[in-house]
Structure formats: C-alpha cells, structure tokens
Amino acid sequence: MVGPLQVQDLKKAYANTPVVDGLSFALEAGTCFGLLGPNGAGKTTTLKLCLGLTAPDAGSITLAGQPIPAQAQAARARTGVVPQFDNLDPDFTVTENLRVFGRYFGMGKAEIEARIPWLLAFSGLENKAESRIATLSGGMKRRLTLARALVNDPDIVFLDEPTTGLDPQARHLIWERLKQLKTQGKTLLLTTHFMDEAERLCDWLIVIDHGRKIAEGSPRELIASHIEPQVVEVYDEEAGALEAFMAGRQDVGVRVEVSGETAFFYCQDPQPLLADLARAGGLRYVHRASNLEDVFIKLTGRELRD
Ligand code: ADP
Fold first, then answer.
1. 110, 148, 160, 261: which could join 236 in a potential S-S bond, CB 3.0 to 4.6 Å?
2. What is the pTM of this model?
C-alpha cells in the first residue's frame, strides 16, 4: 500500500542557492512525522513542494497516492493544511468560515452542514458558532484553523508551527486534539520550533539544515544516539562564580557547552560534578535527563538563525 507521503531526492533552489537539497523521507499512516530545523533550513519550502504549491527542480513526491505536482489538486482533496499564520476570514462567523472552506473543497451544502457540528465539538467552539473571528482568543482561532483543515475529512494534515504564539494552556489543548486525530488514523506532518512539542507528538522525525537531512529517528532514538544521557545546567548568577567553578576543571567524559550565563555539562554520570557543585555552594544548578532540544542544539549549533 502506498503511504500518505513519500519524498525522494527532492531539490529546489532559489537564485542558484539550494534551499531543499536532496531530501528523502516517507510518512507512515496514522503517525505524526516531524520536520524540524532552524530558521531558513527549508521546512516551509518542503511543505510547499509537497502540496504542489511550488515546482521542484528535481526529485519525486507522492502525496495521498498522487504524483506531485502533476496531480496536486486530487492530492490536496485528501489533505488538510494548518498554515503558520491564521488566515481566517475576519468578516465571517466561526460557522461561516467552516462553510466557505467546505465549498472551496467542492463539498455539497448538506455534506458541509452535516460535518459542522463535529468540527465545532472537536475545536471546543460549540458556543462560539455564531461569533465573529475578531472576538476569538488566539487559542480559539488556532483550534478553528485546525477544524477548518479537517472539513474535507483528510487522510493527512500538514501543520506548520501549529502552536507558535499560544499560551501553555492553549498549546496543551492543541496537543490533545492532535493526539486524538492520530488515534483516528490520521497522518500528521508537523513543523515546530518547540522541541518539547516534537518530543511529545512525533513518532518519527527528521532534522534538516541547509535543505539536507542531518538526522532521522524517533525522538527517543535520537536522544539515545546523539547525546549523553544526563545534563547538569549551571547558572552564573553572581558574575564570575561559574568561571571560578570551571577554572581548572577537567572532567573526564564530560562535554561542556557554555551559552551566555549557563554552562551545560553533558555526561553519563553526573554524580562527581553534582558533589563538587554542592561543595562549592553559591551556584544554582539543575540536573535533568537530556532531551530533544539538546540533540537539536548539538546538531544545528547555538548561534542565532534569522
Ligand atoms: P524554514 O521554513 O525552514 O524557515 P524556508 O523554506 O522558509 O525555511 O526558507 C529556506 C530558504 O529559502 C531561506 O533562506 C529563504 O530566504 C529562501 N526562500 C524561501 N522562499 C523563497 C522564495 N520564494 N524566493 C527566494 N528565496 C526563498
């Protein structure tokens, strides 16, 4: 059986600069696939290529069993899209926004009306059905954008940074809904800057940089294979205290990264370091298990990407 999305050796350049540079990946039905990478890595371009919104220079894409871009329209009929920025129609109510989108997919009136109650319930907007968009909170708008992407009952949903700009409560609600979609057998393709989000939702993910894949696996596998299992973060609250603590230290098997006023000690066994920190006193520190953000930073560096 053909999976929901396969991408093979995809290439796209703008003004002779490669933006997507030989990318291959495949999604399995009913899973959440993460497409991660720093700003400018080529994530949005990859999504656009997969949806047939821009033409590749080379490579092949099969979305919902259809070759892209040749059969993009047929493929998009089986696909939902949650764009990075909400583009709801501000002049319409919640229900009207869903209706307009249904018509855009060529759905009949009766079919749309039959679907609306489920979409309102899914997004928790039953009592906002007749409200105008301007009266909704950021979280409600995102939930409506997600519901709108489901109007055509798609097999696969593309989510471009679905929780950017939301408060923690609103993010948790979106996560819950996305997990619910997975249990219904939908396939999700997610881009996000939040590594906790990727770790929580993604069954499989790739990290890309400069349009190339630099890592692939489940969050757990990536953490196990790319980074030491334990981290001690030490904060320099009194100027110089951290420097004094670090002066002359030569911890065997410990990798140290300093970022601003924080030192990250990555290691297998943090006990000797923790004992020294306790003895030294005066420094605030946190001991935790390594996570996907540590992997991401190790792979893509700490410098800012604009
Ligand atoms: P990401 O989504 O990972 O931040 P993008 O795919 O948006 O990355 O962009 C990757 C690179 O391609 C960036 O350097 C961006 O400036 C460039 N780029 C994207 N779209 C265009 C375009 N239409 N014309 C020229 N350059 C583009």
1. 261
2. 0.93
